[in-house]
Design goal:
The protein is an alpha+beta fold and 437 residues long. The protein folds into three domains: 2-113, Alpha-Beta Plaits (2-Layer Sandwich); 126-135 and 263-432, Trigger factor, domain 2, CATH 1.10.3120; 151-246, Chitinase A, domain 3, CATH 3.10.50. The protein is built from twelve helices and eleven strands. The protein has helices at residues 21-36, 51-81, 136-149, 198-204, 252-257, 265-299, 306-326, 342-362, 368-379, 385-394, 400-416, 428-432; strands spanning 2-7, 12-20, 86-95, 104-113, 126-131, 152-155, 165-174, 177-190, 212-218, 232-246, 420-425. Strands 6, 7, 8, 9 and 10 form a five-stranded antiparallel beta sheet that branches. A four-stranded antiparallel beta sheet has the order 1-2-4-3. A hairpin with a 4-residue loop joins strand 1 (2-7) and strand 2 (12-20). Helix 1 packs across helix 2 (51-81), helix 3 (136-149) packs across helix 6 (265-299) and helix 6 crosses helix 11. It is extended. The two termini are 66 Å apart. The model has no long low-confidence stretch (mean pLDDT 90).
Length: 437
């Protein structure tokens, strides 16, 4: 077999393969002879089928397999001989042009190779590391949230006010015609939560059980229901029940409800504090990691194999489609294209290449003690930590996620040791509150 490799661009290569026809035919005959020993044809005993009949029945498929195997073997041999690192999958095409020889089958394999990735200088990268502590106020705030989550409601004859839950039936029309989503029965509204439009919530404030009100409201121009956005709707609303809230006190019974066997409130506070500290630690690590990896990516400049970008974009698209289906979106309503994920895919591929180079050259592989520590930390959030740790270490593949996290942390630490790290004072609440909240 003959092979030549051409460079078609920065990363694109074309491998031309010429496989002698005689070699192909010789291998075809060998395989047909082996097949004849086991082939089953009506009227013949196994192993007694004439070779000609075997060739008529199986010859085309055998020849196709031989050609495919020969091309793949030649491709792999050429790649190893020239020390090429193939990215993605090659596109193999048969050449039937005038230059092709009658004595050989000629093919071309077009593929990309991995780029040369140099470890970037990250001395100019700036990482702002949040510095915060869990305070008594943070613990009090969390306990208050937990208390509100246990709120119960009791029917009342008085007029509805902020904090009450009102169960209503309502019907809405636009220009005298009912519209989708404009009708409901036994619909609960918690006054003051802000889940309803202001005019709708105002109509429920002051209402009593059994009372009916009519009112109008204008949907905002940017309302999520495009068919009613900017339009005026008229509603008829009947209150079926007004119920006042009862928030449980922070006492022994409350502590027991959250798994504190002793019913000791200080023990509950201690557990909440431990959970908040773990949450804070992970949040700081996440913020720092995002900055470090972004800085690392921005300092590295190299061409990306588009085949890898395409594969990554397809994977991101499939995961997004799966998430949407799990959220109840119908398959026919999911309109996704790989191009939507290209920028994210490029970032992930580039970062993966840089991290791989760093791990190989700087010895940043996951260490066993790191992996074990990560497993133990996660296990502490379960009722039986020891059992969780044992389960993860029973099978090697269960540790894969933790090994990847350990490698990522080693890379982040490598960046932080060389970058400019500024400690920025903040608070637990500020750090945990989403920017758009």
């Amino acid at each position: 077999m003959q092979t030549t490799v051409e460079s078609l661009g920065q990363l694109t290569r074309r491998l031309n393969v010429a496989v002698p026809v005689a070699q192909i035919e010789g291998e075809v005959q060998k395989r047909l002879a082996r097949l004849a020993k086991t082939a089953k044809v009506a009227g013949f005993r196994p192993g007694k089928v004439p070779l000609k009949m075997v060739a008529q029945q199986y010859g085309q498929q055998v020849r196709s397999d031989v050609i495919s195997d020969a091309v793949n073997e030649t491709f792999n041999d050429a790649v190893r001989a020239q020390n090429l690192r193939v990215a993605g999958y090659p596109r193999i095409e048969r050449r039937d042009d005038a230059a092709s020889s009658q004595e050989a089958l000629e093919f071309s394999a077009v593929f990309e190779v991995y780029p040369e990735v140099s470890i970037p200088d990250v001395a100019g990268v700036v990482v702002n590391r949040p510095k915060a502590e869990v305070t008594a106020a943070d613990i009090d705030r969390t306990l208050e949230v937990l208390r509100k989550q246990k709120t119960t409601f009791t029917p009342t004859a008085r007029a509805a006010q902020t904090g009450d839950r009102v169960v209503v039936d309502f019907t809405g029309t636009i220009d005298g015609v009912a519209f989708p989503g404009g009708q409901a029965q036994d619909f609960p509204i918690n006054i003051g939560e802000g889940r309803m439009l202001p005019d709708f919530e105002a109509a429920t404030t002051g209402i009593r059980a059994g009372e009916t009100r009519t009112f109008s409201l204008t949907f905002p121009p940017d309302y999520h229901g495009k068919e009613v956005a900017g339009k005026v709707a008229h509603f008829t609303l009947t209150a079926k029940e007004v119920a006042e809230p009862h928030v449980p006190p922070l006492d022994d019974a409350f502590a027991k409800a959250f798994g504190i066997a002793s019913g000791n409130v200080p023990a509950l506070r201690a557990e909440v504090e431990a959970n908040l500290k773990l949450e804070l630690k992970r949040k700081i690590e996440s913020v720092v990691k995002e900055q470090a990896l972004k800085g690392l990516r921005e300092q590295a400049q190299f061409a990306l194999p588009q085949s890898l970008v395409q594969l990554e974009a397809q994977g991101l698209m499939r995961r997004m489609a799966q998430n949407l289906r799990q959220q109840g979106v119908k398959a026919e309503d999911i309109k996704l294209e790989t191009e939507m994920f290209r920028t994210q895919a490029e970032h992930r591929v580039a970062l993966g290449l840089i991290v791989g180079e760093l791990v190989r050259n700087e010895g940043l592989q996951a260490r066993p003690e790191q992996v074990k520590a990560m497993v133990q930390e996660i296990a502490q959030t379960y009722e039986q930590p020891e059992a969780v740790v044992r389960w993860h270490f029973e099978k090697r593949e269960r540790l894969a996620e933790f090994e990847a996290l350990a490698v990522e942390q080693n890379v982040v630490d490598w960046v932080l040791a060389r970058a400019r790290v500024n400690d920025v004072p903040t608070t637990f609440e500020a750090l945990m509150t989403p920017a758009n909240a």
